[in-house]
Each structure stands twice: as C-alpha cells, then as structure tokens.
Specification:
The structure is a single chain. This protein is an alpha/beta fold and 185 residues long. The chain has a single domain, classed as 3-Layer(aba) Sandwich (Rossmann fold). It is built from 5 helices and 7 strands. The N and C termini lie far apart (37 Å). The model has no long low-confidence stretch (mean pLDDT 77).
Length: 185
C-alpha cells in the first residue's frame, strides 16, 4: 500500500491546501465502487481540469462530533487501501488526483460543502444501491441551498453507473433555474 501524508485542517481553504479551485469533484466510498472515478478521470483528461477525489468520513450516533477528530480516526487502513487504489487508477489514466477526507454528519452536506469550498464545476457521483439517482441529486440539492457561500455559477452534478451517466442536473445559486436530464431505474 502507498504511504500518504495526512494533515488535519479545520477548513479546506485556498490558503490551507494546495488544491486548485474549479475542476471536478469525485466522491468515493469504497475501493469496490469506483465507476464514477473512470468518468471523472476521462472528463478531467478531456477538460484538463483538476480532479479532487473526496472520501466523506461519516460520523453517526450521539457522540458523533468531529471537531477534535484525530488523523488516526480519519485515515484508517480502509482509507489507505481506497486511496492506494484511486492513485493507481489515476496513474493508469496519466492523471493526477488530489485526495481529501472530510468528516461529516451528513454525506450530502460534506460533498456540497467541499464543492462550494473548492468552487468545483462538476460533481460526479457513483450510483448508490440504497437510493435512486434522483434521490441522490435531490439530497445534494437540499443541502446546496443551505451552503451560505456557494458560488454563483452553476455546478453540474452527474450520477453514473457502470460507465454511463444516468442522471444529471445543474445546481446554481438560483435553484428555480434547474436543468435536469436523465432517468434512473
């Protein structure tokens, strides 16, 4: 397995991390479910945009505050295996990927907050087995309205499954201007 340097930062700001703003955000959860990574790598290669791979560390339960979480709790063997596989995959595409782990009580909030902080142009989600693609986008849209500093431009959100985009929508500061495309089974 690859070795990674881990830094515990309170906020993902331009000053704190050396990751370009704009580009593509690709949340990943497990090394067995990386269908969205292929599409994200292809799109990053075509557009020459930065690619940010995001793992949300989901905290649950009555004592799930994450203000004082230590690196050992954020970056376990699971994340090390996941990021080792992601880096190897990106290298096969000849692409560089910036890796982030973000603690969150709500996965959609973690994705939306990171997308807003990094001012991404696209979010490429992998389809979840537990909810439909439309519900994934709806969940992201719900928290997008709560992010006070979201950017003014539109962010394209795609849900992909087995190499194909099955649902997409643009999120903007004015959510009355939704542009939705695709269906989900």
């Amino acid at each position: 397995m690859d070795q990674f340097g881990v830094e515990n930062l309170e906020k993902i700001s331009n000053d704190a991390v050396q990751i370009a703003t704009g580009g593509i955000l690709c949340p990943v959860r497990t090394s067995k479910l990386l269908s969205n990574l292929d599409i994200a790598l292809e799109r990053a290669q075509e557009s020459r945009n930065a690619l940010i791979i995001l793992n949300i560390k989901h905290f649950r339960g009555p004592f799930s505050g994450y203000a004082d979480v230590q690196n050992a709790h954020l970056f376990t063997n699971t994340e090390q295996k996941l990021f080792t596989k992601v880096v190897a995959h990106a290298e096969r595409f000849g692409e560089h990927a910036d890796l982030l782990i973000v603690p969150a009580l709500d996965i959609f909030h973690g994705v939306a907050r990171t997308a807003a902080d990094r001012q991404v142009n696209e979010i490429i989600l992998g389809r979840l087995a537990t909810i439909s693609a439309e519900k994934q986008i709806r969940g992201l849209r719900r928290v997008w309205t709560l992010i006070p500093h979201r950017r003014l431009g539109a962010v394209k959100v795609m849900v992909v499954d087995e190499g194909a985009v099955i649902c997409e929508e643009e999120l903007s500061a004015d959510l009355s201007k939704r542009n939705r495309r695709g269906t989900s089974s």
